């Protein structure tokens, strides 16, 4: 068996792939958190719970309505996005003038409630969600075996991430968003309905989390705690990448996933802490994050 | 020259306007009017309430009372975006150029609120510098270019009433002249302009009338052709 750096090549590439998959989820989630923090000034602790909700919506659709993976990939994000819009309209929007802490407390409480409800109803053992038939099996690439579904997850999330990048950085709607992040008051005085923009931004960002949840369902099983496990790492990634840049969130998410994968290969003991180590180093050297700008 | 009193034809009519930031009561019953096509300045010392007057017209203060009508329509209860959509555009003192947008995005940012706005080509004729800097980030521009961008971008929208807050502040004399020239051209095109100015020599070259603001209300009105005879009074108001 070929070895690379003293490790069997299939093991190394296997961990790299796993890292890329985790990184895909990190990227999708940290992107949404960055959009929400930029626009709403809210640290959205409910993001993990909404990611989990996305997975559960897909599972409900399949088990109660017989609606499969592909429609769920569209429907579940819509459901989660609509739910997010209701949360924003009825609760979050009342907190914008207050300190960050209130938004954080509200969303943290919401996360506990949402997770608690699912946990109460479905336990924590996890519900299986089948891989869609078109994506079963895998390819032998010579140096490693690539399960088709996992390849799809990486490709799909990269497409959605860059779609989001395009939306924010290259369209009129994105220009409104970026301008509103800098100076909401003035953007509003130009005739743009900023409260509506904020509602849409929140709905869109949590829909991304819902989308990630559907992608994750066949890999991790559908489990009320799946968001909790992920969200702390995602917050660390947001800190590392900084909040100024969409591209930064994507690159940092994927990069940290890969770093984690490599750490698992070469020094498994550190794989759970390496993210936080990097976060500490970044905070010490570049407090605004790798891609962030100081906020005015 | 139209006297401010009476008449149903004023474009903007402000009556008994009060504005508050938290506990602070900033405007204390300000009253004035602007007719369509006029250039009117608000003169006054720092802190007299000139900027707050503009922001109150736009709905950008925490709380306001009184009456602000545009073409007879009451604006006092509308949100800033609704007010903008009625055809008022605001150019803030700090210019408000967005750093994360390039010059073209800054220029195209304010949505069209009414028909009849200027085309981008016409704006480039007024401000040729902007055309060469379209891909630059908004804040890479010089102060003068930023001011031109800040004025240029509100001309596209079709708004007929422009609120300009100290457009000449901190700019070199040659740029101040250029901005003055632009304001004259805008008046000739039929824009109505409410201008906040510290520099009343500059204001006297453009304006039809001047309102003097003191302690959050309009205390005097001076037609521009009678500026010279009122110089003594004005120096006293402005403390210069």
Automatic annotation (TrEMBL), chain A:
Q: Which GO terms describe its biological process?
A: amino acid transport
Recorded GO MF terms: transmembrane transporter activity
For membrane topology, the record states: Multi-pass membrane protein
What InterPro entries does UniProt report for this protein, alphabetically?
Answer: ABC_transp_permease (IPR001851), BCAA_transport_permease (IPR052157)
Q: Would the keyword Ligase turn up in this protein's UniProt record?
A: no
Source domain of life: Bacteria
**This protein's GO CC annotations:** plasma membrane
Predominant localisation class: membrane
Cited Pfam families: BPD_transp_2
**Membrane-spanning ranges:** 12-35, 42-62, 68-87, 99-118, 149-168, 196-220, 232-259, 266-285
Q: Where in the cell is it found?
A: Cell membrane
Sorted UniProt keywords: Amino-acid transport, Cell membrane, Membrane, Transmembrane, Transmembrane helix, Transport
Q: Which family does it belong to?
A: Belongs to the binding-protein-dependent transport system permease family. LivHM subfamily.
Q: What is this protein called?
A: Branched-chain amino acid ABC transporter permease
Q: What organism does the record attribute this protein to?
A: Ferruginivarius sediminum
UniProtKB/TrEMBL annotation, chain B:
Q: Which GO terms describe its biological process?
A: L-amino acid transport
**UniProt xrefs under Pfam families:** ABC_tran
What's the domain of life for this entry? Answer: Bacteria
Q: Which PROSITE patterns match?
A: ABC_TRANSPORTER_1, ABC_TRANSPORTER_2
**SMART domains, from UniProt?**
AAA
ABC transporter domain mapped to chain residues: 12-240
Keywords of the record: Amino-acid transport, ATP-binding, Nucleotide-binding, Transport
Any GO MF annotation of the entry: ATP hydrolysis activity
Q: Does the keyword Ligase apply?
A: no
State the CDD domains in the record. Answer: ABC_TM1139_LivF_branched
**Does the entry feature the keyword Nucleotide-binding, yes or no?**
yes
Question: Which family is this protein grouped under?
Answer: Belongs to the ABC transporter superfamily.
User: PANTHER family under this entry?
Assistant: HIGH-AFFINITY BRANCHED-CHAIN AMINO ACID TRANSPORT ATP-BINDING PROTEIN LIVF
User: Under what name is this protein listed?
Assistant: ABC transporter ATP-binding protein
> Which organism is this entry from?
Ferruginivarius sediminum
């Amino acid at each position: 068996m070929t070895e690379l750096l003293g490790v069997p090549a299939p093991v190394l590439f296997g961990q790299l792939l796993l890292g890329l998959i985790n990184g895909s989820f990190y990227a999708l989630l940290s992107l949404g958190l960055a959009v929400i923090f930029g626009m709403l000034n809210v640290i959205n602790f409910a993001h993990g719970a909404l990611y989990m909700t996305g997975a559960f919506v897909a599972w409900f659709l399949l088990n109660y309505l017989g609606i499969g993976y592909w429609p769920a990939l569209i429907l579940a994000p819509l459901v989660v996005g609509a739910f997010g819009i209701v949360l924003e309209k009825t609760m979050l929007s009342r907190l914008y003038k207050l300190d960050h802490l209130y938004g954080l407390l509200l969303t943290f409480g919401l996360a506990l409630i949402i997770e608690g409800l699912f946990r109460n109803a479905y336990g924590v053992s996890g519900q299986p969600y089948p891989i869609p038939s078109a994506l079963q099996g895998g390819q032998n690439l010579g140096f490693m075996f690539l399960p088709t579904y996992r390849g799809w997850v990486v490709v799909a999330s990269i497409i959605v991430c860059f779609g989001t990048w395009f939306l924010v950085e290259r369209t009129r709607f994105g220009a409104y968003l970026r301008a509103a992040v800098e100076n909401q008051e003035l953007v509003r005085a130009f005739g743009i309905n900023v409260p509506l923009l904020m509602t849409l931004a929140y709905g869109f960002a949590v829909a991304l989390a819902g989308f990630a949840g559907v992608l994750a369902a066949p890999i991790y099983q559908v489990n009320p705690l799946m968001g909790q496990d992920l969200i702390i790492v995602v917050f660390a990634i947001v800190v590392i990448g900084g909040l100024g840049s969409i591209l930064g969130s994507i690159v940092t998410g994927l990069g940290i996933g890969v770093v984690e994968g490599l750490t698992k290969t070469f020094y498994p003991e550190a794989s759970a802490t390496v993210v936080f180590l990097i976060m500490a180093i970044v905070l010490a050297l570049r407090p605004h994050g790798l891609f962030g700008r100081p906020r005015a | 020259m139209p006297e401010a009193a009476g008449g149903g034809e004023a474009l903007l009519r402000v009556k008994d306007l009060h504005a508050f930031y938290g506990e602070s009561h900033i405007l204390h019953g300000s009253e004035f009017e602007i007719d369509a096509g006029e250039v009117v300045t608000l003169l006054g010392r720092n802190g007299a309430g000139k900027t707050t007057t503009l922001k109150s017209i736009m709905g950008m203060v925490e709380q306001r009372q009184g009456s602000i009508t545009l073409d007879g329509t009451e604006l006092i209860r509308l949100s800033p975006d609704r007010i903008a959509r009625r055809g008022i555009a605001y150019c803030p003192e700090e210019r408000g150029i967005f750093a994360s947008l390039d010059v073209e995005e800054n220029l195209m940012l304010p949505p069209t609120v009414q028909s009849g706005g200027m085309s981008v080509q016409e704006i480039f004729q007024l401000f040729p510098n902007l055309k060469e800097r379209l891909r630059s980030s908004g804040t890479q521009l010089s102060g003068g270019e930023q001011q031109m961008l800040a004025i240029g971008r509100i001309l596209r929208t079709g708004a007929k009433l422009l609120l300009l807050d100290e457009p000449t502040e901190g700019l070199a004399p040659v740029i101040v002249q250029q901005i003055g020239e632009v304001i004259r051209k805008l008046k000739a095109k039929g824009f109505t302009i409410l201008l906040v100015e510290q520099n009343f020599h500059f204001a006297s070259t453009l304006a039809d009338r001047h309102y003097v603001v003191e302690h959050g209300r309009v205390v005097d009105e001076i037609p521009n052709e009678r500026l010279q005879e009122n110089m003594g009074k004005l120096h006293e108001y402005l403390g210069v």
